[in-house]
Design goal:
The complex is a heterodimer of chains A (438) and B (559). Chain A is of the alpha/beta class. Chain A is 28% helix and 21% strand. The longest helix of chain A is centred in the last third of the chain and has 22 residues, at 416-437. Classes of the chains: A alpha/beta (438), B alpha+beta (559). Chains A and B meet through strand 5, helix 4, strand 17 and helix 9 of A and helix 7, helix 15, helix 16 and helix 17 of B. Chain A: Residues 6-419 form the FAD-dependent oxidoreductase 2 FAD-binding domain.
Chain lengths: 438, 559
């Protein structure tokens, strides 16, 4: 018997999971297909909505993202879902993550220190990053670890001060207590903190064993010198971050926060866990580990519908039938958009991706220039259905969400998670509604 | 500010550093100035082929003989810079038989070991060769790391008392119409940015003799001296692949043509090249057709190149020279031979000699000849020893082996480090604890980066060429900031960030020519990491205007 669902979502990142969740909550059967780890593992775990307007050289950061959304160009995905769509999606998000995220008490963006030593505007931040906000005037000590090479705490502290933050910042680099390998992954430290493993610590002429949270606090204390809050690279526990943080705060007598990091991003993984949990609770079925390679057309004469997508498994192509489909495969980074020397394509449905025929027009000359490639993606109608080169809907039962959408540069605008959430919720609800109406 | 020296060498490429080493070893007081970092001009932009001479065995036998001679010397004195890959000249079905025979004959005439391989044998050695191989000639081509070799020459020169000054551009020559007596240089530094030489000032360096070893830029120095040096710069593209599709150098065996060589180099393979005369060695078009030509032509030799991941492309400029009376119209006809232009003989101008033409493989021989000439002028009788004395890092292979043992042969990181560092491995790797890997693609550890910083200060591009950090698949996306962090606190925060920006831009520049497929996806990731995750594109520290922090979320304290 064929595999048959009401809605099939392709892609397991924020957009895909949000679409699946939103659809499932409308009471339809939803299946989510995903291939590899999503880019959530590479993202910071911050939920940006809009930090800068496009082409806003020197302007911004925006303190109120909602106020700025109507100023975006027409092709921007936010213009498709509208300010209300963004607010609704954030409400869904806030409900899913509960206490794990902060920022919903105000419309204003928060400025969060980055592991590169800058601050960046974001709308929702993990509770673990809350004590680190740059608008807070408490003095801060940043603590880095010798073998965690992505975060140089003294350099980051100096750089924060040169950005004029309203607090004193100092940095210290210490050795993570215990006998960890030089090439230990940051997840190894996080696991040790979760379990509060006992580690060997050198004292004055003796060796003793301490729980690692206490040992870490002891190693930080000599550098504290009255700092009111202490920031660590984001590795303070994968599963029990609140508990780890509270232990450290109690030992140190100071607030503790995490500085979000690049891959592998523990806050990103925690967020992935929260979204997956919510999806499962809502009844979403997950089929993972194999790629969706193409699709089957509808059987009815004259129909332009998609009947099924095909997943490649051990050389066989397995069709997954559904009434409605959501394409949430990501952008260039997530491989939802593919390219070769000749052109740019959406590889599963071959949806139209506007781009110049000359690949030398795909980028700007400066590394941080206004890159056309950053905007590569599908264009849609106002129901998020991808459009072909003539501006007609590609397939009546296909919607797109997240980074596979063109028309926005999430990295420059700081809008990645917000676009995924807003278009995910809209696409999921719309797909479910279509099922219910038919 | 004024300094004096016996000989001022202008140009920090292979020839310049080779001359500095040679003269310094003969006891001459030498100062070398280079406007960029070492290898900044042509040397750092070659495909890394250590010629066997086979390439010139038909067209230019004198060059071929020099190549095989120097090929042997470099294996001896610079073992840690050379990989003895071997090479093949591959004949495809349809390529002329006569030329194959001529090539084979030419190799034998020039003393180049050459062996004919059947199609099966050739493909057994290199399984990715096309099935259209008819036969091949095996020759002792190799791969050489021009950065490491050039740096080793400079270090050796310094060890013998030379002064090597990078980021020091000659802005004028001293002297008059009859005699050159030195140069005025400008140190490219300034408060808060860089700190290689003195802070942003000019310096007069007075010298008994000046050697112009600026290659394709020789005409510029000539202009300052009022003499005419007709260098004919010719550009060539190189395309860098993300892994080694071949382990030996693969040459197409046909008379001449663009896109006919693949050189395995460290973790990559480099495709080359074109040969196009340009007006200005610093400003010439880098064109899409050149990149496409490399892939489309060379996939006929090695078909998987058509599908392989390209990480970047770069262009180099050959310092071609031919005596004015020859007048070739096609740059591929111009000899690869080198010329010593004594401006006293040629232009009645004392105290200056230029060296032009030539190729990387014979840099040492060129350096020897010009050093002989300079010593003649100065009345110095010491003889050249550069063919016998190993370069720093290559002195003692047993040290290398001991280092590999000590750091564990099983570790690919330690193996790569010891290969790069040669006999210095033990000293460098034991200098820093703990010693995590900073560049995962190329397995470069903190100790190597710090060692390179000790040598080159805040110039992270100089650190890059010494270590290969940031030269792998990710093109620096994951490691540029880690490298910059190692500058601090020795260098202050603005210097570290300026150095980071420089390196990041430099990496981007070459990657632009490989932006499709996997590498475009990688570029998207790098851009997202540095822009979205770190906000480096709109870093508030770079703003003129202060941020109104009070207008942003101040958090909910006490909850």
């Amino acid at each position: 018997m064929a595999i048959e669902d009401d809605v099939t979502v392709v892609g397991g990142g924020i957009a895909g999971m949000t679409a699946a969740l939103a659809a499932a909550r409308e009471g339809v059967d939803v299946r989510l297909l995903s291939h590899k780890d999503s880019t959530l593992k590479s993202a910071s775990g911050l939920v940006d909505v809009l930090g800068y307007l496009p082409e806003s050289d020197g302007e911004g950061p925006l303190s109120d993202p909602f106020e700025a959304i109507p100023q975006l160009p027409d092709a921007h995905p936010y213009r498709t879902v509208g300010v209300e769509g963004v607010r609704e999606a954030l409400a869904v998000f806030d409900g899913v993550v509960g206490d794990r995220y902060r920022g919903d008490h105000t419309d204003r963006n928060a400025l969060v220190p980055t592991h590169g030593g800058a601050v960046k505007p974001t709308a929702r931040y993990p509770a673990s990053a809350a004590a680190g906000l740059a608008s807070d005037d408490r003095s801060a000590l940043l603590v880095g670890f010798e073998t965690v090479t992505d975060f140089d705490a003294p350099l980051a502290a100096d750089h924060l001060e040169s950005a004029g933050v309203p607090f004193a910042a100092r940095g210290a680099t210490i050795s993570f207590p215990g006998d960890f390998r030089v090439d230990a992954k940051i997840t190894r430290f996080a696991d040790a903190l979760d379990a509060d493993e006992r580690v060997a610590v050198q004292g004055d002429g003796y060796t003793t064993e301490l729980p690692v949270r206490e040992a870490l606090a002891e190693a930080v204390k000599p550098h504290l010198r009255g700092a009111e809050r202490v920031g660590f690279p984001a590795l303070l526990g994968q599963h029990r971050p609140d508990e780890v943080r509270e232990s450290l705060e109690a030992e140190l007598g100071a607030a503790v926060f995490e500085v979000p990091m690049g891959p592998p991003s523990i806050p990103g993984m925690r967020l992935e866990g929260a979204l997956t949990g919510a999806c499962r609770e809502a009844g979403v079925r997950f089929t993972t580990g194999n790629p969706v390679v193409d699709y089957e057309e509808g059987g009815r004469a004259g129909s332009e519908d998609i009947a099924a997508v095909r997943v490649e498994r051990n050389g066989a192509a397995i069709p997954f039938h559904a009434d409605q489909f959501v394409l949430a495969t990501g952008g260039l980074v997530g491989k939802g958009i593919d390219s070769d020397r000749e052109g740019v394509a959406e590889p599963i449905f071959d949806c139209h991706v506007p781009h110049s025929g000359d690949r030398y027009d795909w980028f700007a000359d400066a590394a941080f220039g206004d890159h056309p490639f950053a905007r590569f993606g599908v264009e849609t109608d106002d129901d998020l259905r991808p459009l072909d080169r003539r501006g007609d809907v590609e397939f009546p039962n296909l919607r797109a969400a997240g980074a596979v959408l063109g028309g926005h540069d999430f990295a420059a605008e700081k809008s990645g998670a917000g676009v995924s959430l807003a278009t995910g919720v809209a696409a999921g609800r719309s797909a479910a509604k279509e099922v219910s109406d038919s | 500010m004024t300094a004096t020296t016996d000989v001022l060498v202008v140009g920090g490429g292979s020839t310049g550093t080779g001359i500095a080493r040679d003269l310094a070893m003969r006891g001459v007081d030498v100062t070398l100035v280079e406007k960029g970092n070492l290898t900044h001009g042509t040397t750092g932009r070659m495909h890394g082929l250590l010629h066997s001479g086979g390439r010139y065995a038909v067209s230019d036998q004198a060059s071929a003989e020099e190549c095989i001679e120097e090929n042997r010397v470099l294996r001896d004195i610079a073992g840690h810079c050379v990989e003895e890959t071997g090479g093949q000249f591959v004949q495809l079905e349809g390529d002329p038989d006569e030329y194959f025979e001529e090539k084979l004959e030419g190799c034998r005439e020039c003393g180049i070991p050459a062996e004919v391989l059947s199609a099966e044998e050739a493909r057994e050695e290199e399984p990715y060769l096309t099935k259209d191989v008819k036969r091949a000639i095996r020759v002792p081509d190799g791969a050489v790391d021009p950065f490491r070799l050039c740096v080793a020459n400079a270090v050796s020169a310094e060890n013998h008392g030379a002064r090597v000054e990078t980021h020091a551009e000659v802005i004028d020559l001293l002297g008059d119409d009859e005699r050159i007596t030195g140069a005025e240089i400008r140190h490219e530094t300034g408060p808060g940015k860089r700190s290689h030489g003195k802070s942003g000032e000019t310096e007069e360096i007075r010298a008994e003799y000046v050697v112009n070893a600026t290659g394709a830029w020789a005409g510029r120095i000539g202009e300052m001296a009022g003499v005419d040096i007709e260098v004919r710069p010719s550009k060539g593209v190189m395309v860098v692949m993300n892994c080694r599709q071949v382990d030996t150098v693969i040459n197409r065996c046909r008379p001449k043509g663009d896109a006919d060589i693949v050189v395995p180099h460290e973790t990559t393979a480099i495709l080359g090249t074109t040969d196009e005369e340009v007006e200005d060695p610093e400003d010439y078009p880098e064109e899409r057709w050149e990149v496409d030509l490399m892939i489309d032509e060379l996939k006929r030799l090695v078909p998987i190149l058509g599908e392989a991941r390209t990480v970047r492309s770069f262009w180099g400029v050959r310092p071609l020279y031919e005596p004015p009376e020859v007048g070739s119209s096609d740059p591929t006809d111009i000899t690869r031979d080198y010329f010593l232009l004594d401006h006293e003989e040629r232009d009645d101008l004392h105290g200056l000699t230029s060296i032009v033409g030539g190729k990387f493989t014979t840099y040492r021989m060129m350096a020897e000849e010009i050093s002989d000439h300079v010593c003649d002028q100065l009345g110095v009788s010491a003889t050249c020893r550069t063919a016998e004395v190993p370069l720093p890092g290559s002195e003692d292979e047993s040290v290398l082996d001991a280092g590999m043992d000590r750091f564990g042969l099983r570790s690919p990181v330690a193996r790569r480090s010891t290969q790069r560092l040669g006999s210095r491995a033990d000293e460098v790797l034991s200098s820093v604890e703990p010693n995590p890997v900073l560049c995962d693609c190329e397995a470069v550890t903190r100790a190597e980066v710090r060692d390179a910083i000790d040598q080159s200060g805040t110039d992270l591009n100089a650190v890059r060429i010494r270590t290969r950090a940031s030269m792998g698949n990710c093109q620096g996306g994951f490691c540029c900031h880690r490298m910059a962090s190692e500058l601090h606190p020795e260098f202050d925060e603005p210097q570290a960030y300026a150095a980071l920006d420089d390196l990041f831009e430099e990496r981007w520049k070459g990657e632009r020519h490989a932006l499709w497929g996997e590498q475009l996806s990688q570029a998207g990731l790098n851009y997202a990491l540095h822009s979205a995750t770190m906000n480096r594109d709109r870093d508030p520290a770079d703003r003129e205007e202060a941020i109104a922090f009070g207008e942003f979320d101040g958090g909910q304290r006490g909850d």
